[in-house]
Amino acid sequence: MADQQAAATGRIVIEKCAIATVDAEDTEYATGHVVINGNRIESVGPGDAPGGLRHVTRRVDGTGHLLTPGLVNTHHHFYQWITRGLATDSNLFDWLVALYPTWARLDEEMVYAAARGSLGMMARGGVTTAMDHHYVFPRGAGDLLGAEIRAAGELGVRFTAARGSMDRGTSDGGLPPDFAVETLDGALAETERAIDAHHDASFGSMLHVAVAPCSPFSVSTELMRQGAELARRKGVRLHTHGSETAQEEKFCHELFGMGPTDYFESVGWLGEDVWMAHCVHMTDADIEAFGRTKTGAAHCPSSNARVAAGTARVPDMLAAGIPVGLGVDGTASNESGELHTELRNALLINRLGVHKENALTTREALRLGTMGGARVLGRAQETGSLEAGKLADVVLWKLDGIGHSTIADPVAALVLGAAAPVTLSLVNGLPVVEDGRLTRADEDDIARCARDEARRLAKIAAEAG
């Protein structure tokens, strides 16, 4: 595709670092090497790289570092980067009511600036595969999904664009203003157009598109049902919010006569090609259904806490065989905007539950953020672990500085310590971060443009009353 990041050429050797491969055996090396050839991992092993390698264009001394697969983000709303810090003491529904009137005034330049901010923050923090769920399409706002795709291409991050939709406005009992929702036919047509224009199913693709009606309380049953049919006809994945709050469960019982999971199953929304965001209020029967159908879950611990949604039963999900990844979620409900926080909070918050210290280990938390996310996005054969033949999406974390030097276990240092600096992050074998800075974009320009668009949006929303 024209906007796809070119693959690297020549070999890159990274050696003398600790390595957590996150492969099926959780292989680790106290001191090891990775050889990258073009956009693929050629070899991983203990000690220094083999001698006599040809066409080596770069050697990296990883002393004092940990090398891991790149982090995979499985749920986000980029546009919220320009509405951070609002409604800070609200639960989810009150938060949505407070913010929808502002979000309904988004336009293409705002979404582009917000996407650059969201992607830049994640990339700086070790994310190599990003995902976004954009579902707010005000009339006349421009090409909002295209703005996000353009931003991801510029920053060099692998991307899943989940084309969202809403067709239940306030007049139909939904939360968003009527002028910010689409018609059933319009939403389906635009989603299909996005798939045809942008989805690349090839191995190593930089861009996937998913079908993603927003949530049961903002979407009609027909949009859910026909959205699933569209996704399967086109061979793409499905994504939505599920079982996020107790209010949602009550809503589903009142409107559909069943809980969220039973409702999703009734409209074709359980299966290996589906993943749901949050999955906080899950019964034993819900977890069994997700495990039986291999429906995935995007765990967003910081956002769940921010809007007082609750704690997802991640240990029970994993025990049931459910694919679970981590999500930043929108930065209006997770102002830090980076995924390392979710490694740490997934471990800590789940230990507050019934499983206590046995809920998650540091390595299980790292797996959620790497291979778990790759499974959820349907990319486990391409990324999520350091193995020969997989894509060269890798992150070298600096652990010999003041924040980490006294923690002997590098994985514990990464997961439990402060956010570790990223010395090098490669996507497709090409650097997107070097020494903690983006390589393909001006961070000061990103910050300035995002601030300007945030102020413009706030002014427009205030004038609209």
| Beta-strand residue fraction | 15-25%
What name goes with the CATH superfamily of the largest domain? Metal-dependent hydrolases
The CATH class label of the largest domain is Alpha Beta
Oligomer: single chain
- Briefly note the CATH topology name of the largest domain: TIM Barrel
Tally of extended strands? Answer: 17
Domains counted in the coordinates: how many?
Answer: 2
Domain Amidohydrolase-related: 67-406
Keywords: Hydrolase
GO molecular function: 8-oxoguanine deaminase activity
Organism: Streptomyces reniochalinae
Describe this structure in words.
The protein is an alpha/beta fold. About 35% of the residues lie in helices and about 20% in strands. It has two domains: about 10-70 and about 385-435, Urease, subunit C, domain 1 (Roll), CATH 2.30.40; about 70-375, Alpha-Beta Barrel (TIM Barrel). It has helices at about 90-105, 110-125, 145-155, 185-200, 220-235, 245-255, 260-265, 285-295, 300-305, 315-320, 340-350, 360-375, 410-415, 445-465; strands at about 10-20, 30-35, 40-45, 55-60, 65-70, 70, 125-135, 160-165, 205-215, 240, 275-280, 295-300, 325, 395-400, 420-425, 430-435, 435-440. The strands form three sheets. Strands 1, 2, 3, 4, 5, 14, 15, 16 and 17 form a nine-stranded mixed β-sheet that branches. The protein has a four-stranded parallel β-sheet with strand order 6-7-8-9. α2 runs parallel beside α3, α2 (about 110-125) packs across α14 (about 445-465) and α11 (about 340-350) crosses α12 (about 360-375). The radius of gyration is 21 Å and the shape is globular.
